């Protein structure tokens, strides 16, 4: 309960902060628009040559693009800024103030930053998704909605845990910004559904960077492809990744020495 | 009365990578790193009673900040034990953290772009302070530090001193019982330093809080602390009151007097520190003070002669000049 209250208060501060920089809203709208346009052009180019890609039709791939944009927005709004701040604070030894607070350290370092204007991406993601679903003549059924929403939460948790693991290695390696940049490149691979990639890459993406789970599983839920086994697999993997990330962070905090003075 | 803070042979050692300058050494370091064991804090022990204000002194790199960080639960000690309000700090229990605060003069915790009031609200949430109590404390602190007109301005628009005052309010809103203040007056002008000192003294009096303060400004220490703990090269060098410190470490005393003929050559008596018209201040070795004083009175026409302990800055300087070998 206290955790939710605390997260809410940080969210409030984050939003207040963002209102100080209104120009960012316009830049964000522009960025989202460009990303969306390039995505759509790419999709149309592919489908001017073929009618299906790895068993996925055009509206289905549009749905994947929607999920990709949506989760990308969540990452950039809530996950990435917190992880970047943590990385910075570990390197400069300024994590002190966060660690002297009577609150769970993981919770605190995970909710301190919020980029409100990324909400443009999240909304756009939902709109693209809605368009795709209408093209698919999708009938709203409770199970696929639940499947989709739970997959979305699990996907975000996986990506959060993955980021946290990478970031926590900064306690030992100090400079991990490059590894973090690598993530963005890998995330871009999530633009296409996981089953169009060759096997070796598919497993790499799934287990090294949970991009596949994060984007493909929600998309599978919407397009009626999600099996119960995959869902439980995703759940188990989410729990495992979360606990693992928590363990690594705890170890890291123990060895945190803070840049002196 | 039980101790608020207690250290038993507390030590912190760091493994610091070390290499010679140059490309070759750097390349070698890629494969095999040389480490040096640095004893930042080397088995120090002391007790601080509840309600005491203690000055924690030492030159840069003496181990002050490391000690404060161990006491506030940020660093795990290499060996020895620390106990603060009967808690083991490194466990970072929430009950412990709720009762302490750490203020660092060179770091900010308030949100840069927002007015302090918003950041204060966040502190309320973090420490779960009941709203009424929070408002009362906040307004009281704002009034004492005369911040009323500033709390609605973004922190970035405040001066360094104003910002520090805000930081202190933010750090004390939960009314901690233990204050770790690491250079709280760093870089501030004299008036602002004084304002912050008065506030700390007032807080200590009002809430009976225990304060451990490091500062490079002796005025802070003289005004606030009856007791001084000096560490140097990670070792405890002195623990006692200020006058004892001067007694132990100062090799000199100052003699001030008025001379009828200021042109007189005084080199045979000692070193002249300052001359202001006919008023002269000299520095003489402690053991020669009485001999020099009687000679001055006999040989010259002097008036208003005073003998004083060396100024605290000079004492500290001689303490800090102690070599590492001498500490061990």
Could you explain the architecture of this structure?
The complex is a heterodimer of chains A (261) and B (328). With 261 residues, chain A is mainly α. Helices cover 77% and strands 0% of the residues of chain A. In chain A, α2 crosses α3 (58-92) and α3 (58-92) runs parallel beside α7 (142-168). Chain A is globular. Chain B has 328 residues and is α/β, with parallel strands linked by helices. Chain B has two domains: 3-246, Rossmann fold; 251-309, 2-Layer Sandwich (Alpha-Beta Plaits). Helix content of chain B is 35%, strand content 30%. A six-stranded mixed β-sheet of chain B has the order 5-6-7-3-8-9, sandwiched between helices. In chain B, α4 packs parallel to α6 (160-172) and α9 (242-249) packs across α11. Chain B is globular, with a radius of gyration of 24 Å. Classes of the chains: A mainly alpha (261), B alpha/beta (328).
Question: What are the defining features of this structure?
Answer:
heterodimer; A: 261 residues; mainly alpha; globular; B: 328 residues; alpha/beta; Rossmann fold; 2 domains; 6-stranded mixed beta sheet; 4-stranded antiparallel beta sheet
Fold topology:
The complex is a heterodimer of chains A (261) and B (328).
Chain A: H1 2-19, H2 23-49, H3 58-92, H4 96-99, H5 105-111, H6 119-135, H7 142-168, H8 170-173, H9 177-188, H10 199-208, H11 211-222, H12 228-255
Helix pairs in contact in A: 2-3, 3-6, 3-7, 3-11, 7-11, 7-12
Chain B: E1 3-18, H1 23-31, E2 34-49, E3 53-57, H2 64-71, E4 79-84, H3 94-97, E5 100-104, H4 116-126, H5 131-144, H6 160-172, E6 178-182, H7 190-207, E7 210-214, H8 218-224, E8 227-232, E9 235-241, H9 242-249, E10 252-259, E11 271-276, E12 279-285, H10 289-299, E13 302-309, H11 312-320, H12 324-327
